[in-house]
């Protein structure tokens, strides 16, 4: 059964839509969401269709379903704000970029966190990297769709304490908290198609992009993935390499830097009267 673990923090008239990654959960965006809310933003951490259930729930959806859920979430957020930013982690970053290309009138700026167009990080086995191109053929033939590529340590996390917490939730089957432990090949094929579609649209993006990616990303190489975005979009780009995280930069050791840089970047693109001053913000707490 799918559990709804999306979150909505009411702040000012400038809002940020946060999008998690494939097999992930809104929980991976929550620290960033709380940090942005502390800076006065309204924040909606949405939940992608088919996620936070089991593998069959995910396989019952396509990239079109995931993208449709982004559109619905953006429409909901726009009911509460005058200025909207979108940000995503991993596949969530790809979805954020596609939404921006398709709806430029709605997006003031984009947070691109560890975008994943290609699984080519140092922890991804070579046979997986070399066989990804076969996924579309498997999909067309209807074979191996329920086969699963099981993630292995370090699970995108350099911080051992956080890795232990997340992996325990993931391996126990608590997908609402830790995400799924494996990627069904059918869903990877859908993501591959999404990445292909979005890559072809990157030149349409004129909104300012903040790109943050770890130099040590175990899932998605920075040059291959963030480099593609930086080279292809038409708008201004601020690229920030990170040195103390792996793939999950929104919850790993660089999380405070991700929050601060994001708040500064988005804040510079909206008027101060659109943000709730910290003194009256009802959600003030230290970010761990």
Automatic annotation (TrEMBL):
It is an enzyme of class 3 (hydrolase). Its EC number is 3.1.1.1. Keywords: Hydrolase. Pfam families: Hydrolase_4. It comes from the Bacteria. The active site is at residues 90, 217, 247. The keyword Mitochondrion does not apply. Residues 13-254 form the Serine aminopeptidase S33 domain. One of its GO terms (molecular function) is carboxylesterase activity. PANTHER family: PHOSPHOLIPASE-RELATED (PTHR11614). This is Carboxylesterase. It comes from Bartonella choladocola.
């Amino acid at each position: 059964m799918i559990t709804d673990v999306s979150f909505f923090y009411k702040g000012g008239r400038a809002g940020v839509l946060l999008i998690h990654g494939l097999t992930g959960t809104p929980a991976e965006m929550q620290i960033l969401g709380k940090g942005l809310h502390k800076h006065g933003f309204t924040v909606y951490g949405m939940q992608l269709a088919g996620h936070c259930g089991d593998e069959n729930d995910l396989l019952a959806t396509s990239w079109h379903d995931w993208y449709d859920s982004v559109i619905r979430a953006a429409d909901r957020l726009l009911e509460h704000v005058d200025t909207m930013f979108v940000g995503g982690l991993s596949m969530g970053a790809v979805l954020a970029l596609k939404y921006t290309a398709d709806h430029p009138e709605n997006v003031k700026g984009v947070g691109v966190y560890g975008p994943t167009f290609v699984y080519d990080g140092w922890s991804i086995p070579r046979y997986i990297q070399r066989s990804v191109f076969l996924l579309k053929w498997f999909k067309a033939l209807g074979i191996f769709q329920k086969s699963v590529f099981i993630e292995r340590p370090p699970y995108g996390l350099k911080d051992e304490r956080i890795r232990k917490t997340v992996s325990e939730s993931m391996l126990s089957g608590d997908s609402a908290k830790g995400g799924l432990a494996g990627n069904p090949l059918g869903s990877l094929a859908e993501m591959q198609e999404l990445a292909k579609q979005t890559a072809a649209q990157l030149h349409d993006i004129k909104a300012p992009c903040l790109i943050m990616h770890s130099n040590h990303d175990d899932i998605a190489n920075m040059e291959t993935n963030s480099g593609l975005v930086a080279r292809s979009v038409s708008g201004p780009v601020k690229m920030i390499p990170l040195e103390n995280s792996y793939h999950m930069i929104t919850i790993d050791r660089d999380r405070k830097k991700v929050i601060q840089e994001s708040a500064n970047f988005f804040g510079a693109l909206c008027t101060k009267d659109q943000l709730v001053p910290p003194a009256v913000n009802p959600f003030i707490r230290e970010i761990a």
